[in-house]
Amino acid sequence: MNSSPLLPAEEALAKVVSGASTLPSEHVQLNEAAGRVLASDVKALRTQPPFDVSAMDGYAARASDLASNKPLKIVGESAAGHPLKRELEAGETARIFTGAVVPKGADVVVEQESAKRESDHVTLPATDRGKNIRAAGVDFREGDLILKKGERLTARGVGLAAAMDHATLECAKRPRVAIIATGDELVPPGTPGPPERIVASNIYSVSALCEKEGAVVVDARVLKDKLELISEVISGAKESADVIITLGGASVGDHDLIRPALDKVGAVIDFHKIALRPGKPTLSGGIGKARVLGLPGNPVSTYVCAVIFLIPLLRKLQGHNEPIPQPQPAVLGVDLWANDHRADFIRATSAWDHQGRRVVTPFLKKSQDSSFTAMLAKADCLLVRLANAPAAKMGDLVQVIPLD
């Protein structure tokens, strides 16, 4: 009896993303906003700079006074936070410092290195109007829309929001994630025991990826292969998590209990098994309000499938304006083998050549085993190969997904 055809990887990804809805928003203090996704547009609450300010230390003056090369009388100074209280008149100048308000009447700042001062007078060279002055609003103006809904806030974005005078920002809530690894053979790192024990590494890499994508891991545990136990933990996780990630046990063997456990607690399965290498046993579905993503147990399969499916899911839940990372163009640095009926995400390294092109070099075919964690750690990208892609030659255009 023929088995049903495997779901294409791109269709599986579409199901994962379409099954998720953006989480509610909350107001976040600015010092906690880095990495969060904006839930609304952010407009400037002030003009920056609010006045004409000096770009350097020197003397503020009228450009029309400088052509005669006559000494100007120094009538005061303007420092940041301490502006000159009067307007400059003809024949006058004021000492000024970087960031200080340019006095009324002045339209040029001459750097101090060009000045010749004698007592309370100074001679300044002729200079064009506006030189060394940052005009009011040259950075942004009150009401300008600068940060947009769906953007993930970088450190630069947080600094910009502060300059725009925002103390809090409306952001999507961080997805709460529960991670469940299963397997009688799994032990935590550092656990003594027989050589056949398997260190549970996936839970750490997936947790780190979740945190990097703005999620918060509310639970992460390793369970023995007991159906009742796995079902109980999954059922409890649906009350506290927006996403339940299972690691391992997703195939159809006697010890693969994730699908039976999900069926037992009434989960709805959108798909199970896809045309993907590595990651054929991947499943996706939902239970209650929580999304479920079942990843294979081999470390490379786990991580690659997390990049392909988990990152878009977490981004969609946060309202990210580009939930699916877009592949980047590259050229092959070596010849590449033909692909079969499954899409393949090949571990590779890349470098930029003198023409500004990303040149990608995949690891050898024998090094693409889904358990080779050292090779995964060395990779900086995944080379995307579509199903049934023919052999490719060095120099051919391909697509890659950067890993960092």
What does this 3D model show about the protein?
The chain has 404 residues and is of the alpha/beta class. The protein has helices spanning 9-18, 63-66, 155-163, 202-212, 227-240, 258-264, 299-317, 373-378, and strands spanning 7-8, 25-29, 42-43, 53-54, 58-61, 72-78, 92-96, 108-111, 116-118, 121-123, 133-134, 145-147, 168-172, 176-182, 186-187, 198-199, 216-223, 243-247, 268-272, 274-277, 283-287, 290-295, 328-332, 343-352, 358-362, 381-385, 397-402. The protein folds into four domains: 7-23 and 174-317, MoaB/Mog-like domain (Molybdenum Cofactor Biosythetic Enzyme, Chain A, 3-Layer(aba) Sandwich), CATH 3.40.980.10; 25-48 and 139-172, Molybdopterin biosynthesis moea protein, domain 2 (Alpha-Beta Complex); 53-134, Molybdopterin biosynthesis moea protein, domain 3 (Molybdopterin biosynthesis moeA protein, domain 3, Beta Complex), CATH 2.170.190.11; 328-402, Beta Barrel (Beta-clip), CATH 2.40.340. It is built from eight helices and 27 strands. A six-stranded mixed sheet has the order 8-5-7-6-10-9. Helix 1 (9-18) packs parallel to helix 7, helix 4 packs parallel to helix 7 (299-317) and helix 5 crosses helix 6. The protein starts with 6 loop residues before the first strand and ends with a strand. The model has no long low-confidence stretch (mean pLDDT 95).
